[in-house]
Write a structure and sequence with these properties.
186 residues; mainly alpha; Rna Polymerase Sigma Factor, Chain: A; Arc Repressor Mutant, subunit A
Length: 186
Amino acid sequence: MSNDSLIFLLRRFKTKGKDANAAFGEFMALVGPKLYAASFRILRSNVLTDDAMQNTAIVIWKRIETLKEEAVVFTWCYRIATNEALKIKAIENKRKTQNLDEQVLEFYDNTSQLYTQSAEEMMELLMKAVQTLPEKQALVFQLRYFDEEKYSDIARLTNTSEGSLKASYHLAVQKINQFLRSQLNL
C-alpha cells in the first residue's frame, strides 16, 4: 500500500461522482486491516474493535475532504483509528469502574502489588507506555514492533529517513522500558 495509491483513491473519492463510494470502499479495504490491528491491540475485543472501526470509517469519510494530497495518508488514518479506539476504551473503562463493588475496591487497594504480571496486564502496561510517547515515536514503535514493518516501508509511509526512524524507535524503546520499570517498581 503506497501513499500514491491512497492519494489516487482520494482523488476518485473527491470527485463525488458515482465512483466515490467505490473509491472509499477500496480505500478502506487497503488501510482497514492495519487500522483494525492497531485498534484491536488497544481494545483486545472484536466487538469493541468493530465499533472503533465503524467510528473510524465515519470520521475518515467526514474529514477526507480536508486531507491534503501531500500528507502521509496512512499516518493520518492510523491516528484517527487510534483515537477512536482510545475513546471507546475510556468509555469501557469508566463503565467497568462504575460497576465495581466498593468492597472489591477496598480489597484491591489493600493488597500488595504482585511481582508477576499476566500477559494481559503486561500488554495493557505496554499500551499505556506507548500512549505516553510523542505521536511520531508511537507510530514508529507500533508499526515496527506490532506490525513488524520494515524500516524502508515505514520510511515510505512517513516520508522520513530510515536513520531517523531507527533513532525514533530506539528512543521509544528506551522510554517504554523506563515507563514499565517505574510502573513495576523495578
